[in-house]
Specification:
Length: about 230
Amino acid sequence: MPDWHSGVVTARSPAADGLTDLVLDIQGTPLEGTHLHPGQYVRLSLPGLQASLFAIASAPEPHGTRWEFLLKDGSPLPDALIRLPLGAKVQVTAPEGTGFPLERARGHDVLLFATGSGISAIRPLIASVRRERDTFGRVKLYFGARTPTAFAYQGELHAWEGGDIQVVRTVSRPGASGWQGLTGYVQAHLGEESVQNARAFVCGQPDMVRGVLDALKERGVPREHIFFNY
């Protein structure tokens, strides 16, 4: 059984349609500085509700005392977390998983794929890449959402692009929104992108992950050059 510690809700704000950004303060707990790799996740719990896994959406910090999470509404635990008042306590475990092996991408182009709330695991990877941007070749994010208003972190996209990270957004269900951008699944927009020197990092729903994996393999990217946040 994992060891549980108390984090305190210090901020909460809408992130996109159906998504909420939640910040937990872990200062004074043994969890300080334990988030070591982008893509790691923790278990969150509240009394009477089953614990669930959530990716840490903030960048790893050597002495970090605050963790961000992107909550998708529609399930009991996320819905309860979203309703908590500031100052409320949440039970949280130490980070799990090996995260994304960013060191294996140094000297190579980087392809990032995320859909919906899966961007929460890719966001700290982007922050880590930006800290040593010159270490990598081309960096390109393929970011998909169901509707134009379902993209989290829209306020950060320009900063990412300003940091020499190309962002490709696509919407799978534009409806009557008037969306003028790309539509369809993220893997459909690889186009003639050169992937010979690329390392790929992927997070999203299982169908999306399989689709991206198949598309990259068809383009000749070896399986060992494609990474998930297990």
